[in-house]
Every structure is written in C-alpha cells, then in structure tokens.
Design goal:
The protein is an alpha+beta fold. 28% of the residues lie in helices and 35% in strands. A seven-stranded mixed sheet has the order 1-2-3-4-5-9-6, with helices on both faces. A two-stranded antiparallel ribbon has the order 7-8. A hairpin with a 2-residue loop joins strand 2 and strand 3. The longest helix is centred in the middle third of the chain and has 15 residues. The relative contact order is 0.16. Bound molecules: coenzyme A. Coenzyme A (COA) binds next to helix 1, strand 4, helix 3 and helix 4.
Length: 156
C-alpha cells in the first residue's frame, strides 16, 4: 500500500470553494451539509494542488467538538490518508482546547466503524432510526440498510 506521509491539513476560509464533491461522498444531503458548515471549520488535504481529502470540525460545547464529515477522493482511498487526516484533526482539536471529539457514522458503515475504533474512538451513543427520520430516500451500504447513527467519542 502506498502511504502519504507528507499530508498536511489546511483550513479553508470563506474565499475558498467548498469541496462539495468530496463532502457529498460522506453525507448525501447537501442541505444537511450546508446547515453544519455554517458553524464549522473545513480542512482540506492537497496533493499537487489537487484537493484529495476534506474534514469538517464543528464545535459542540466549549470542551467538545464533532467531526461532521470526512472524505477522501475515491482514487486516493485506502492509502492511509483518512487515518492521517483524523490523526491531524485530533491534534488540531486538542490545540484549540477541546477535551473530546466525537464522530457519527452509520450502522452499516463497517470500514468507518473499524477505522474510528482503531484510532481510539469508542461507541458512546446510538441514535436509533436517525437516517430514516432525517433522510428522504432509503440508503444502503454494504447491502445493509442505513438506519441508526453510531456516535463514537475519544478523549484528547
Ligand atoms: N474496508 C475495510 N477496511 C478499510 C476500508 C474498507 N473499505 N477502507 C479503509 N480500510 C482500513 C485500512 O486498511 C486501514 O487499516 P489499517 O489502519 O489497519 O491499515 C484503515 O481502514 C484506514 O484506512 P485509510 O486508507 O486511512 O482510509 P481512507 O483514506 O480510505 O479514508 C474514508 C477512509 C472513510 C474517509 C474514505 O474511505 C472515504 O472518503 N469514504 C467515503 C466517505 C465516507 O464514508 N466518509 C465517512 C462518513 S462517516
């Protein structure tokens, strides 16, 4: 597997275009994305000036924040970039004074549940029927209907 050890996240400002193509890979609802972007910070990972990853950090309280969205461009997935982006956002969040970080994923998102737990996140809550109640169309992943949101949390 080719690794990307040089990857550094960069926060984008209002003058930059939001990489919706990437954010929509993680969240099929543009309306939902637009709602949380209003209060979030967007960080991107670039390679040769191409945006290959995006991660969205949203404050919840003075001491906790949430990774609202994380996505790696399909051609670059499976190369360790997602893992590096989460490791960097953990450092960034800690430097901002947060004491814990959470991330929500779906009951059917097997790879994501694997990655987040491997990086020290632990299941803290299950929002039952979240994706049925909040999304217009049924969603399937790995042949399993996406119904519940699994919230994972990690101390910093
Ligand atoms: N199935 C099983 N394991 C997988 C996997 C898959 N589909 N994809 C990655 N992994 C494993 C890797 O082998 C690696 O394991 P290791 O630490 O034991 O070596 C680990 O997960 C980290 O993989 P990495 O290469 O860093 O993941 P990535 O760069 O592909 O990023 C995502 C992970 C989820 C961000 C990326 O696949 C993506 O953008 N997916 C679409 C959007 C999405 O689902 N976002 C999350 C919404 S909750």
């Amino acid at each position: 597997m080719t690794r990307e050890p040089q990857l550094i996240l960069r926060r984008i400002g209002e003058e930059n275009e939001i990489p919706y193509d990437l954010l929509l890979l993680a969240d099929p609802s543009k309306a939902a994305i637009e709602t949380y972007l209003r209060k979030s910070q967007v960080f991107i990972a670039e390679k040769n000036k191409e945006i290959i990853g995006a991660i969205v950090l949203c404050p919840l309280t003075e001491t906790s924040a949430e990774i609202k969205n994380i996505a790696v461009k399909p051609a670059f997935q499976g190369k360790g970039i997602g893992k590096l982006m989460i490791q960097q956002i953990l450092t960034i969040a800690k430097e901002k004074g947060y004491q814990s970080l959470c991330i929500g994923t779906a009951n059917a998102s097997i790879a994501q549940l694997y990655i987040y737990q491997k990086l020290g996140f632990e299941i803290s809550e299950i929002k039952r029927n979240f994706f049925i109640d909040n999304y217009a169309e049924p969603i399937y992943e790995n042949g399993i209907q996406v119904k519940h949101m699994i919230v994972l949390r990690r101390g910093l």
